[in-house]
């Protein structure tokens, strides 16, 4: 410490601005500049490159996300369109099924009506046959009664005019409606 005070006392300045100090300052400045260049090559440029790559990756990720979102929206629109088409097709199928059911219902009703008409017609024919059969039975009974009356008349030896009168009387008693029913 004694030497610093000695230099201060002799020159009267705080530090001496001489050529050695200027040369050392210039060398230090050149060293700092070289150090700055070396550090920029070693550190700054790789960091800049890394930041650039990261920025590019983020940009590409954003673009990919936007494309994915657009594709998702397109797929959603396509899905909704297919869903609408499926709903329309389902409605058409249901409508066709309803029409077919109504048609089948009408067909069944018409067939039932035709069958009922056939049954009624068959019943009417059977009734008519039964009526004819009953009329034939009545006629046979009348013939039998007439034959019986005739045999009784013959037994009593009634003449033919009395016989015809008795048959006529018997027919009148039975009535004309008997033959019609």
Per-chain topology:
Elements lengths: L1 H10 L7 H138 L3 H15 L2 H4 L1
Subcellular location: Cell membrane; Endomembrane system
Main location: membrane
Membrane topology: Single-pass membrane protein
**Rg result:** 68 Å
Mean pLDDT: 83
What is the multimeric organization of the chains shown?
Answer: single chain
Question: What is the count of helical runs?
Answer: 4
State the secondary-structure class.
mainly alpha
- The low-confidence parts are 4-8
Shape: rod-shaped
Q: How many distinct beta strands?
A: 0
DSSP helix fraction = over 70%
Coiled coil: 62-137
Transmembrane segments: 20-44
Keywords: ATP synthesis, Cell membrane, CF(0), Coiled coil, Hydrogen ion transport, Ion transport, Membrane, Transmembrane, Transmembrane helix, Transport
Organism: [Lactobacillus] rogosae
């Amino acid at each position: 410490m004694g030497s610093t005070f000695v230099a201060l006392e002799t020159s009267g300045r705080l530090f001496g601005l001489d050529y050695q100090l200027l040369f050392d300052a210039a060398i230090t400045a050149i060293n700092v500049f070289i150090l700055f260049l070396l550090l920029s090559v070693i550190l700054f440029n790789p960091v800049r490159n890394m930041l650039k790559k990261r920025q590019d990756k983020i940009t590409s990720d954003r673009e990919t996300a936007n494309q994915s979102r657009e594709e998702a929206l397109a797929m959603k629109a396509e899905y909704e369109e297919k869903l609408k088409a499926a709903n329309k097709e389902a409605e058409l199928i249901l409508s066709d099924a309803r029409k077919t059911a109504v048609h089948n219902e009408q067909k069944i009703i018409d067939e039932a009506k035709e069958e009922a008409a056939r049954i009624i017609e068959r019943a009417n024919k059977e009734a008519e046959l039964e009526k004819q059969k009953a009329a034939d039975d009545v006629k046979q009974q009348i013939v039998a009664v007439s034959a019986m009356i005739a045999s009784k008349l013959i037994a009593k030896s009634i003449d033919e005019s009395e016989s015809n009168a008795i048959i006529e009387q018997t027919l009148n008693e039975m009535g004309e409606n008997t033959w019609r029913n």
